[in-house]
Amino acid sequence: MKTIGYAAQSATTPLAPLRFERRELRPNDVAMEVLYCGICHSDLHAARNDWGWSRYPVMPGHEIVGRVTGVGNEVQRHKVGDMVAVGCMVDSCQQCDQCNQGEEQYCRAGNTGTYGGRDRITGEATFGGYSKHLVTREEFVLRVPPGLDPARTGPLLCAGITTFSPLRHWGVGPGSRVGVVGLGGLGHMAVKLAAGLGADVTVMSRSPDKEADAKALGAHRLLVSADADAMKKARSSFDVIIDTVPVKHDLNPYLPLLDIDGTLVLVGQLGPMPETNMVPAITGRRRIAGSLIGGIAQTQELLDFCAARNILPDCEMIRMDQINEAFERMERADVRYRFVIDMASLEG
């Protein structure tokens, strides 16, 4: 299938149109027309090779919503015309213990990324959702529930599941005390989802400027991390803290805020962190953990949960040809809180 998308040819070149071919349908494949695609900070990192493993050309996009245009002859879960979604993965071994328990993101053989990965059959590079069309095996295609706005569903597939998964894993519900560090694309979803699960939610920020925004998203209060007295009073007051900060930063202010057996979960920074004083961890049986997106079943659970409770990300819609400007704005944190590309704007 001939199609078009936007790709980076190197770490220093802007994204630009690229014509290419999607594979012909395999028996278990679903083909879709991409209608909307969210923009993740990971897209920017991959395009600019910030992690050192990008292979060019890079066509980002793993917050994808579209309509089914064709199915292979063995497909049973989806049909032509269905509204569907694809997140960060398009394949895994489907045989290991992690895949068998619905944790494909931790596939022992490594999951196949929606972009920047390698097709498990042909070895060809995978291209993401900054494109007109997508072809993916049916096990990794999700159902968009009726009532969930397709134009705002995309960010749930990365920002949403990245924060929902640790909230579910650590049993957050009514009575839970949840802190959220950072109020960007990930942070604003962590607030909405924790509040939706019935938790008492506190946003942590270096200044009081975000208090109104935090409360509008569903937080009960804002804790100013630069206020030494406030931080001291907040010690041992959280069961779970979701840390969404996407750069190297100090964890020492946050560990003492956890109660005994509390967990600080890192979902933002993928790389080195400063030295951490482990005294609070040992004296309070506190944990530092990480979490990677979520499995396919849990992502579907998230979509159904958000549809039932009308939880959606706050989005700014852009045209495909505004992608490079959006990347620059994202670097400046000049977005509230997630960009989404209207793929109808991509000609060709």
Please provide a written account of the structure.
The chain is of the alpha/beta class and 348 residues long. The chain has two domains: 2-157 and 295-303 and 314-345, Medium-chain alcohol dehydrogenases, catalytic domain (Quinone Oxidoreductase, Chain A, domain 1), CATH 3.90.180; 160-290, Rossmann fold (3-Layer(aba) Sandwich), CATH 3.40.50.720. The protein has helices at residues 41-47, 97-100, 150-153, 159-169, 185-196, 211-217, 228-233, 279-284, 296-309, 323-331, and strands at 2-7, 16-21, 29-38, 64-71, 83-86, 89-91, 112-113, 133-137, 142-143, 177-181, 200-205, 221-224, 238-243, 258-266, 287-290, 315-318, 338-342. The strands form four sheets. Strands 3, 4, 5, 8, 9, 16 and 17 form a seven-stranded mixed sheet that branches. The protein has a six-stranded parallel sheet with strand order 12-11-10-13-14-15, with helices on one face. The two termini are 13 Å apart.
Ordered list of secondary-structure elements with their pairings:
Elements (H helix, E strand, L loop, with lengths): L1 E6 L8 E6 L7 E10 L2 H7 L16 E8 L11 E4 L2 E3 L5 H4 L11 E2 L19 E5 L4 E2 L6 H4 L5 H11 L7 E5 L3 H12 L3 E6 L5 H7 L3 E4 L3 H6 L4 E6 L14 E9 L12 H6 L2 E4 L5 H14 L5 E4 L4 H9 L6 E5 L6
Parallel strand pairs: 10-11, 10-13, 11-12, 13-14, 14-15, 16-17
Antiparallel strand pairs: 1-2, 3-4, 3-8, 3-17, 4-5, 5-9, 6-7
Helix pairs in contact: 4-5
